[in-house]
Amino acid sequence: MTEKIKKINGITIAVILLAVGVLMVLFSGKKDGSTEPVEKYVFDESAYEEQLEKRLKDIVENIDGVGNVSVMITLEGSAVYTYATDTAYDTHADGDSKTQSNVVLSVKGSNNKEAVISGYKLPSVKGAAVVCSRALSPSLEMKVVGIVSSALGIPTNRIFVTN
Fold first, then answer.
1. pTM, whole model, 2 decimals?
2. Is 75 buried (19+), middle (13-18) or exposed (0-12) by CB count in 10 A?
3. For position 25, what pLDDT does the model report?
4. What are the beta bridge partners of residue 69?
5. What's the CA gap between 14 and 20, in Å, rounded?
6. What is the mean pLDDT of residues 94-120?
7. pLDDT tens, 65-97?
8. DSSP 121
9. Predicted pLDDT of residue 145
10. Could you tell me if residue 74 is left (phi over 0), alpha (psi between -120 and 50 degrees) or otherwise beta?
């Protein structure tokens, strides 16, 4: 009888251990909840240019007498990223001080480290060309130049308007 009890206990323990192992496999996985690949933010200059051109076109076309409009914008440079840094200051008793800055890294997985982006500066607009389908009077051309200058934050000498 004791042998049967030992066999039953051994089988029960094996079944329990198997069930615990299956549960551990089912509930193990990524603890950060990221089962999808991490998307990196990459600045798309052409998409930014197109967006600016579309918005500017929509604004200029709303001016009475301008007609249909085509717009081209040129950018200067590209986006500039700033990275988060961890700065440590060490001041000695003799008055010497030492500063050490390190870029903050985000660890994703065992071998994947990325610098943490704290901000970015968009590229500046270098110039704009506006082509209107109707002939413009000098006062209407001044309106178009003024709107483009205000909207893009560039001086009027970097804007060319024609029909």
1. 0.57
2. middle
3. 59
4. 132
5. 10
6. 70
7. 899 999 999 988 777 777 777 777 777 777 777
8. E
9. 95
10. beta
DSSP label at residue 110? S
Separation between Cα atoms, residue 153 and residue 148, nearest integer Å: 8
- The residue that leads in pLDDT, 66 or 99, is 66
For strands 117-121 and 80-83, give the pairing: antiparallel
Residue 47 C-alpha from the chain's centroid: 13
Rounded-to-integer distance, Cα 53 and Cα 125, Å? 11
3-state SS, residue 156? helix
Where would I find the H helices in the chain?
2-27, 45-61, 138-152
Is residue 104 within 8 A of residue 84, CB to CB? The reply is yes
Q: Give me the mean pLDDT over the 154-162 stretch.
A: 94
